[in-house]
């Protein structure tokens, strides 16, 4: 409510009812989702290559979410390496097959934790290998910027990761199969503001505010993009997309010439905000974020449409809220 200027919108709505043919509708939805609820096991592997660079293997592949950025940031929590030194391989079952795949808004919390646990083990393995090379106590082994490791207080006595791999008798690698004990529960509140033309029933979305609690936001850019994409899909469900059949059951929406899908011109700028309530289910504190926008958005939009025309006697409309349906409802025309 605070982010949207709710009370000012209500004042504008009252003014429009008496001065304009463009009615203003305001709709709110509050939802809770369940993520990682049916498949809660995911694995990852990490190794130091001969050139000192790092390879991360996961089975949960990106479908636009840019998981690689998340994994790199997790590696950099413990190892002093640049992003371009971390190579992420996703979905290659020849190299890593311990995965149930990308689904259920589960990757950040499950695969992310598997990467974290693997990096923790790799971190310890690197210190053990360095302690052996320097004949030092492992507690005196520290990491130095740029991807090297050596004795505390003596940076001149250090080895690069590539050198350490050369001296090591075994590959320096680690993996983890992580199982989460239960589902996580992200939440969201959406507010939709739209205009309804009284004469034609046309709906024009003009604002959409999305506040999401997906636990700790691990990759802000990706989280924001996923909320925007899911919200756009939800707006489309509420206003445009519909399978239509004739009385004999023949489909009438056979192509995108007939099946309505909005372009960027029909979707308003999505105002995204986050609050963080860390999940107790995993050490990252993460919850799912990929799908909750498409749950909250259509409800908020449908509520906004009804809110705009309720004073005209309209109490309900089935989605999608097309101009035809709205015009007929305003004019009390059935069927």
From TrEMBL:
Species of provenance: freshwater metagenome
Domain Aldehyde oxidase/xanthine dehydrogenase second molybdopterin binding, residue spans: 2-268
Alphabetical list of InterPro entries matching this protein: Ald_Oxase/xanthine_DH-like, AldOxase/xan_DH_MoCoBD2, AldOxase/xan_DH_Mopterin-bd_sf
TM region positions: none
Gene3D superfamilies assigned: Aldehyde oxidase/xanthine dehydrogenase, molybdopterin binding domain
Classification of source organism: unclassified sequences, metagenomes, ecological metagenomes
PANTHER family cross-referenced by the UniProt entry: ALDEHYDE OXIDASE 1-RELATED, XANTHINE DEHYDROGENASE
Name listed for the protein in its UniProt record: Unannotated protein
Pfam family, one: MoCoBD_2
Keyword Transcription: no
The UniProt record lists the keyword Isomerase: no
GO-annotated molecular function: iron ion binding; oxidoreductase activity
Keywords from the UniProt entry: Molybdenum
